[in-house]
Amino acid sequence: MCSEIESRAEFSEIRYAQCWEDADILVEALNTGAGKTYVSIASAGDNSLSLLTLKPERVIALDLNPSQIACLELRVAAFKKLNHGELLELIGSRDSNNRRDLFSRCENLLSRDSRAFWNSHLNNIDKGIGNAGKFEKYFRIFRTRIIPLIHSGRTIDGLFKNPDRESRIEFYDKKWNNWRWRLMFKIFFSRAVMGRMGRDPEFFKYVEGNVASRILSRTKYALTELNPAENPYIQWIMKGTHLDVFPHALRESNFDLIRENIDKIEWHLMPLEEFLAKEGANSIDSYNLSDIFEYMSEENYHKLLGEIIESGRSGGRIAYWNMLVPRSRPKSMAGLLVPLKDLSDELFVKDKAFFYSRFVVEEFA
Q1: Partners of 50 in the β-ladder
Q2: Are strands 317-322 and 358-364 parallel, antiparallel or unpaired?
Q3: Are 83 and 67 in contact (CB under 8 A)?
Q4: DSSP class of 247
Q5: What single-letter DSSP state applies at residue 331?
Q6: 4 falls in which pLDDT band (50, 70, 90)?
Q7: What's the pTM?
Q8: What's the farthest any 2 CA atoms get from each other in the chain?
Q9: Is pLDDT at 204 greater than 50 in this prediction?
Q10: How far are the Cα atoms of 2, 105, 145, 211, 321 from residue 189, in angstroms, in the given order?
Q11: Distances in Å between the alpha carbon of 295 and those of 45, 151, 178, 318, 365?
């Protein structure tokens, strides 16, 4: 059984070499106790690995794209074979001249297909695997070609030197938010440019309104209401690496716990729809659904949501993001799925992956 987006978009290259969704709020949303079974959209693997800190019975990672499965497989091998500092080198979070050696230590744990994939992309190993995706290349162009037309290196550094909200707002208004920033942002993050260079045009099929303006508003929030010095996503976009903060799965404080539970994660190259048809009713506690509902019609979203509810166990949860397309439980499913609005809103105000317009947490009745 195919997913709607599978028939419309290309799924062969690495789209995302990192998970650009904040696992801190994801883990908090889905933390209903140890020993649970989770289904997670794999993407690059980071957030699926973060779920291992919840001491689950199983984490089942799914993806349509074999390149994304290869990203997850290599991360799993790295957690098994490398220490924390070496993991950061392999990702690209720390400088290294030794990445091929680190890869060779992990290689024998990879499947034949993933080993072949990475051996045909050794240049991505050399650069750090966190740089390997289309989305990361899009940000690299923004960082190396667009931002220098707008701000000096000194101004960019200043973005990370305002610890309190008032100073961040003043910095943004007086030094950052000039006409060049607004103009170049609206061009570079337009539907056309982002669709061609960053995501896929088909990902915008159900989007209405001005894409760049909506993302610009969220970017202002991240640069003023939140602290860029504590935001690994902004650090990577502006600096091409992590400075002194990391996403959830890459923190030293989580490394041993993920490693201890690493054998509880499994992965499958298949759409969620096919998995649900095989898995059966009352079999899954909670779901990390990324933003997959944005890529399908409202009718198909409702159909898939119904299948997810059938598979879910009472008290379990689903968590997902809205970026540009509003999606949330329809009234027709009110007796089956309960919106946790207060929790959703509380977590969303802390969301460091600032592109999204909403974070949704709902609970199986």
Answers
A1: none
A2: antiparallel
A3: no
A4: -
A5: G
A6: very low
A7: 0.93
A8: 57
A9: no
A10: 30, 39, 14, 7, 19
A11: 20, 35, 34, 17, 26
